[in-house]
Design a protein that fits this description.
This protein is of the alpha/beta class. It folds into two domains: 210 residues, 3-Layer(aba) Sandwich (Rossmann fold), CATH 3.40.50.150; 61 residues, Helicase, Ruva Protein, domain 3, CATH 1.10.8.100. It has eleven helices and nine strands. The strands form two sheets. It has a seven-stranded mixed sheet, sandwiched between helices. It has a two-stranded antiparallel sheet with strand order 1-2. Helix 4 links the parallel strand 4 and strand 5. Helix 2 packs across helix 3 and helix 7 packs across helix 11. The longest helix is centred in the C-terminal third of the chain and has 13 residues. The mean pLDDT is 95.
């Protein structure tokens, strides 16, 4: 399917773009492209209204989701693409939507997102699998909160998405769920089969929409929470009195002081409980 822009330029199908610019997906960059423009449009709509907002896309590749975001009304879209091979294809989209698309040829892990825009930012991205989890943790754990993003609509491997939204007491519940649910409301809004991508990965994928909690119920140091969750879930089969002993020799007494049974395991403790533990161990 081709795409027409407000300028009247008709962009070629994405398969032709990939062929023209030699954009075969690189496994080393975690690239898997979505070529169905109906599907990318559906993903873009999960992010809500773009009016008065800056949209940030990570890893646009040949520009399938980029086109959809612009078609759905993004008036200021910032695309961050590490792969220089994709720049010519993105330049064609820039020409079709004059003034709407800014492209940064950079590693998404190195960007100072606080300086990108003064307008509210919505992040919408089919994240490269190789950096998806690290980017998410970075965006969830700045010391200053509220942070730069107003919402995030992000593609992950389905297993990772399920870990993000997991509830206490389930096998998928872990450190990622605690960090995500402490400061945001994450929700899986779409699932995609492997054949939706080129090349097709070996696993299903899912889109997670995040809405930030401006004032989390528990105030806690990010580093303290990361430290406690890393210790607790690093030895998740052990009771807390044993797994947290690496942090303090009096771990059992500290856990009990939070109203938590030291014989419980990490997967049984809700987000609020981990916040209380982080504060107690930090003090």
């Amino acid at each position: 399917m081709s795409a027409s822009s407000p300028s009247g330029v008709v962009l070629p199908p994405l398969r032709d773009v990939i062929r023209k610019h030699g954009l075969a997906a690189k496994k080393s960059l975690g690239q898997n492209f979505i070529l169905d423009l109906n599907l990318t449009g559906k993903i873009a709509r999960q992010a809500g209204s773009f009016e008065g907002r800056t949209v940030v896309e990570i890893g646009p590749g040949p520009g399938g989701l980029t086109r959809a975001l612009l078609t759905e009304g993004a008036q200021h879209l910032i695309a961050i693409e590490r792969d220089a091979r994709c720049l010519e294809a993105l330049a064609e989209i820039q020409a079709a939507w004059p003034g709407a698309l800014t492209v940064h040829n950079a590693d998404a892990l190195d960007i100072d997102y606080d300086t990108l825009s003064t307008a509210p930012i919505r992040i919408v991205a089919n994240l490269p699998y190789s950096v998806a989890t690290q980017l998410l943790i970075d965006w969830l754990t700045p010391e200053q909160w509220p942070t730069f993003w107003e919402s995030m609509t992000l593609m992950f491997q389905r297993e990772v998405a399920e870990r993000i939204v997991a509830s206490p007491g389930t096998k998928a519940y872990g450190r990622l769920a605690v960090l995500a649910q402490w400061r945001s409301h994450p929700k899986i809004v779409m699932t995609l089969p492997p054949e939706a991508f080129t090349p097709a990965p070996k696993v299903e994928s899912a889109v997670v929409h995040f809405t930030p909690i401006d004032a989390p119920e528990r105030v806690v140091s990010v580093r303290a929470l990361e430290r406690v969750t890393a210790a607790a879930f690093g030895q998740r089969r052990k009771m807390l009195r044993a797994s947290l002993k690496q942090l303090r020799p009096d771990a059992e007494e500290i856990v009990a002081s939070c109203g938590i049974d030291p014989r419980q395991r990490a997967e049984e403790i809700p987000v609020e409980g981990f916040c209380d533990l982080a504060n107690a161990f930090a003090s």
